[in-house]
Design a protein that fits this description.
The structure holds two protein chains of two kinds.
Chain A (H helix, E strand, L loop, with lengths): L1 E6 L1 E3 L6 E2 L5 E2 L4 E3 L3 H15 L2 E7 L5 H10 L3 E5 L9 H15 L4 E5 L9 H10 L2 E13 L4 E8 L2 E8 L2 E5 L11 H9 L4 E2 L1 H4 L31 H14 L4
Parallel strand pairs in A: 1-6, 1-8, 6-7, 7-13, 8-12, 9-12
Antiparallel strand pairs in A: 2-5, 3-4, 9-10, 10-11
Helix pairs in contact in A: 2-5, 3-4
Chain B lengths: L6 H17 L4 H7 L6 H7 L18 H14 L1 H21 L2 H13 L4 E4 L15 E5 L2 E12 L6 E7 L11 E7 L5 E5 L11 E12 L3 E2 L5 H37 L1 E2 L2 E2 L4 H30 L4 H25 L1 H4 L6 H11 L6 H13 L16 H5 L6
Parallel strand pairs in B: 1-4
Antiparallel strand pairs in B: 2-3, 3-7, 4-5, 5-8, 6-7, 9-10
Helix pairs in contact in B: 1-4, 4-5, 4-7, 4-8, 5-6, 5-7, 7-8, 7-9, 7-11, 8-9, 9-11, 9-12
The chains are: A alpha/beta, B alpha+beta.
The complex binds flavin-adenine dinucleotide (FAD).
């Protein structure tokens, strides 16, 4: 019984990211665990506490991504693994998914792979579905609650958050899921976990170790651009009561022909 | 010389930062206004292990070093002084005194539940009539068989109505000369018959915390609750202050940082004469000074923490760190209020709370005047550190991480 969370390091959402003249993206602040993965890691640790299963936190990327793995260990996952070789530099999501799927297969006994809803830096989530396809497992996206999970009977029942409301879906294990923000209250690392994580050696698996060719990127990012500067101005609407403020705001919106 | 922090120290600091920013910062202003302690704070700090951060694992703590204790205090006071006050009394003044002076039996009985956060701890030295001049205290402890009978009132006691254990100093020999030789330390529990407590309201600052009085009327305290020997109370209290002051200094560093961070943010938002106020040179000067106070205070605190890790006596260095950091935190808060203009004068922004909170720390754990006297006396050669029967143990990762022995 084994749950894998896949994570990566991303710039802090509070970081000031800039693009220079030659299209290089830079920021000063330290990398953090992909904010969406705070939920997936926590969910894995909650499953561990409830079902006494093994948990692995997995990343694909350069050494900087060890930070996210260590955060996963500090929060309570049992072991960390990083997949990397130079053919993965500038990997597109398909190469990335080959790497994740190969690592999950090497681990062997995996019942569930959990992703955060998306990768906050690129704002993408297709890798979730691509990993499911590579593994040949069911994929359930936007999971809001794991209602039932039976590792021995190999079944899972979840509540998904969909645009129209909530949807209950039952499926088979092994499976790949992605989780949304409200699934849990993210755990902080524990002090014991911090110590364990800082001492942990994170093994690196390359294509040779996994026995796969990651291939070449089919999609290339050709340029980044800063978003255009916002030109708008802020105007504070004053008033003695919320009603008065709302009335003034509506008047103003009519005046400016917004409404 | 190595100025770098270890990844563990950085991660522990970040964890506490994330906790206070998420769970405390959004509502602390309201608790301050209500003059009430948020009832979730102590249980959460206990649950997360913060209350026992630098106590050895075998005594129920998290096994981190003295520097981490300082970093944690900085993060706590970045958000509100009352959170750091908890660490000063629970960890600095009380738990570390048990670690330093307690018998193995006392450590198991009192330190373990404190480090695990099952019991909260306070420190009772000050009385209505004496603060700086502690040797003149009134509280007495008379030995009768295998108990001491304690009488007296302790005043301005942090966590008075929250703590389960108090480290109380009282006179076993009121006639002793010098008077300091007649003082003894006791672990008094709040459930002992004759112990009553209450909170003081109408304080200038630390309004979201508990500060009060502990009254003792014919309280029977078993001999097994005496910390150290009879007559060692003054030294135990001074040793406790070496640790409490360290946490106060470290917290003041966080308060300076709070002033700096809020001032940087506001000075870029607020416009006067067509530019952000950050572009005016006199505002820049305030920012520059806050940064200077932060850097200098932090170095003093880290040095004191390093000395504790090494097991080097640090009474003078800790006093310097506490005196400088707290004095500068008052100045930083004054400047931060000024920089915020009328908004700084209102509780719509947090800086007025920082100013009110900063003022307490130049009074408790040695007023700034007392620290000046100490520094001068050390410099003039009128005062020197004398070895203690029990010194604060140096940080040794191996012993700090030893697992408890299961009986
Ligand atoms: C918020 C808060 C929390 C506290 N928590 C605790 C606690 O948990 N436990 C505890 O035991 N105490 C606590 N205290 C008490 C604190 O430690 C005392 O207030 C402090 O030691 C000063 O004593 P005092 O108030 O009696 O002032 P005094 O000693 O009466 O001093 C009055 C003034 O005279 C000055 N002064 C005194 N002697 C000299 C001198 N020789 N030369 C020059 N100037 C001098 C002082 O600096 C001060 O300005 C707390 C106080 C506050 C405000």
């Amino acid at each position: 019984m084994h749950v894998v969370v896949v994570t990566k390091s991303t710039p802090d959402t509070a970081a000031k990211v800039t693009v220079d003249g030659s299209g290089n993206v830079t920021w000063k602040e330290a990398m953090v665990i992909n904010p969406w993965d705070e939920y997936s890691v926590t969910e894995a640790v909650l499953l561990k506490e409830a079902h006494n299963i093994k948990t692995t936190v997995l990343t694909v990327g350069e050494e900087a991504h060890n930070e996210a793995v260590k955060q996963g260990l500090a929060i309570g996952c049992d072991q960390g693994i990083r997949v990397w070789d130079s053919t993965l530099a500038n990997a597109d999501s398909l190469q990335y998914s080959r790497a994740v799927a190969a690592a999950v297969q090497k681990l062997g006994d995996v019942d569930l792979v959990i992703f955060g809803k998306e990768q906050a830096d690129t704002g993408t989530d297709q890798h979730v579905y691509q990993v499911g396809r590579k593994l040949g497992w069911n994929v359930i996206g936007s999971v809001f609650k794991i209602q039932e999970i039976d590792f021995a009977g190999k079944t899972i029942k979840v509540v998904r958050l969909v645009e129209q409301g909530k949807q209950v879906v039952a499926g088979k294990l092994p499976a790949v899921i992605s989780v949304v923000k409200d699934i849990n209250e993210p755990k902080y690392p524990s002090f014991m976990g911090i110590r364990k994580a800082s001492k942990a050696e994170i093994p690196v698996w390359d294509g040779a170790a996994l026995g796969v060719d990651f291939g070449l990127p089919g999609v290339k990012v050709s340029a980044y651009q800063n978003p255009p500067e916002r030109a708008g101005k802020v105007q504070m609407i004053d008033g003695d009561s919320a009603d008065e403020k709302a009335r003034k705001l509506v008047e103003k919106l009519f005046e400016d022909k917004v409404l | 010389m190595d100025f770098s922090l270890t990844p563990e120290q950085i991660a522990a600091q970040k964890m506490v930062h994330d906790f206070v920013m998420k769970e405390v910062y959004p509502t602390i202003g309201e608790w301050d206004r209500k003059q009430q302690m948020n009832p979730d704070i102590l249980p959460r700090m206990a649950e997360l292990g913060i209350l026992g951060i630098n106590i050895p694992v075998k005594y129920g703590g998290q096994g981190f070093d003295y520097i981490t204790l300082g970093l944690v205090c900085e993060e706590l006071e970045r958000v509100d002084t009352t959170l750091r006050v908890i660490m000063s009394v629970h960890a600095g003044l009380n738990s570390l005194s048990l670690l330093q002076w307690g018998t193995e039996e006392q450590k198991q009985r009192f330190l373990v539940p404190q480090a695990q956060g099952e019991k909260y701890a306070g420190f009772g030295l000050t009385e209505p009539g004496v603060g700086s001049d502690v040797a003149n205290m009134r509280a007495t402890a008379k030995k009768q068989g295998d108990v001491y009978i304690l009488n007296g009132e302790k005043m301005w006691i942090s966590l008075a109505t929250k703590a389960h254990h108090f480290l109380v100093i009282a006179k076993t020999d009121p006639e002793a000369r010098p008077a300091s030789k007649g003082m003894t330390a006791f672990i008094v529990t709040s459930d002992m018959k004759g112990v009553t407590t209450g909170d003081i309201h109408g304080k200038l600052g630390v309004r979201a915390g508990s500060t009060g009085w502990v009254n003792m009327e014919n309280v029977e305290v078993p001999v097994s609750h005496r910390l150290g020997e009879e007559g060692e109370g003054f030294y135990i209290a001074m040793g406790a202050l070496d640790n409490g002051r360290y946490t106060v200094g470290a917290g003041a560093v966080g308060l300076i940082r709070a002033c700096l961070e809020e001032s940087i943010k506001y000075s870029k938002e607020r416009q006067t004469f067509g530019v952000p106020i950050a572009d005016h040179q006199l505002i820049k000067q305030k920012i520059a000074y806050m940064q200077q106070w932060y850097d200098a205070a932090k170095l003093l605190v880290l040095k004191a923490g390093w000395m504790k890790n090494q097991g080097i006596r640090n009474t003078r260095e800790t006093s310097m760190a506490k005196w400088y950091a707290t004095d500068m935190s008052v100045k930083a808060a004054l400047e931060a209020v000024q920089l915020h203009g009328a908004y700084g004068f209102s509780d719509e922004y947090p800086v007025e709370r920082y100013l009110r909170n900063s003022k307490g720390a130049v009074i408790y754990e040695g007023t700034s005047e007392i620290h000046q006297l100490m520094q001068a006396d050390f410099a003039l050669g009128y005062r020197e550190n004398k070895p203690l029967r029990c010194e604060l143990p140096a940080y040794d990762p191996d012993t700090w991480l030893e697992e408890p022995q299961t009986a």
